[in-house]
Amino acid sequence: MLQLYDKLLELPLFIGISTDELSDIVGQTKFSFHKLAADKPLVSKEEKCTQLFFLMSGTLRVVSYADSHRYRIEEELSAPAVIQPEHFFGLMQRYTKDFTAQTDCSLLSLDKSEVLRLLDNYLIFRLNLLNCISMQAQRMGRIPWRQQSDDIRQQFVSFLRLRCLTQAGHKVLRIKMEDLAHELHQSRLNISRMLNDLQCEGLLTISRGIITVPQLEKLR
Question: Transmembrane residues, as ranges (predicted)?
Fold first, then answer.
């Protein structure tokens, strides 16, 4: 039981909750516990978001797809984490990415009725969820107003960062050179030169249709 208390306090939606309130939550809330072996899927893109999943331990592989399905980005999400809480309510209540176990994972989940009860009864839980959704909305709201760089390198960095779930760690972009050139409104030759320069600096590696970035935070 003490281990569950400690794990909950690490999760974004439970940070700041008092010991007494946490004791009430553990005693009254119907948590579902899940063990996910490596390479087993958790949820898929377009699947209905009916449960709020919390990653307690392990690492998930996250895959995001372009609407055209001409390219995709693969990255990792490590515990503790909440899986797309911004899609639990609202107009589009479906996951927008594939989540698969990269390593053996432990998760817990809450169905919608339990989440609504926690929102009604616990102010800190309510504020944490609002903060989580607000940060996402504010970040996305600023994107159209950012000044666009004329530098091809910065265009590529922005292209990658805007499509990643997290802004650090290992990323794999699976895209053809001509598709990347089209997305950045550049020639294929200029794209090739830029990527080769970044590879020479040790910031990424390129192979046929695959761009691997070991540490996104170093790519500037």
Answer: none
Structure tokens that stand for 112 in this block: 């919608």
Instruction: Report the alpha-carbon distance of residue 179 to residue 202 in Å, rounded.
Output: 23
Q: Are residues 122 and 25 in contact, defined by beta-carbon separation less than 8 angstroms?
A: yes
Tell me which CATH homologous superfamily contains domain 2-143: Jelly Rolls (2.60.120.10)
Lowest mean pLDDT among 22-26, 35-39, 108-112, 119-123: 22-26
pLDDT for the residue numbered 2? 57
Nearest to 191 by CA among 74, 71, 76: 71
| Three-state secondary structure call for residue 66 | coil
What pTM, to 2 d.p., does this model score?
Answer: 0.93
Give me the amino acid identity at 100. T
Q: How far apart are CA 126 and CA 104, in angstroms?
A: 30
149-218: CATH architecture: Orthogonal Bundle (1.10)
Q: What spatial distance separates the first Cα and last Cα of the chain, rounded to whole Å? A: 44
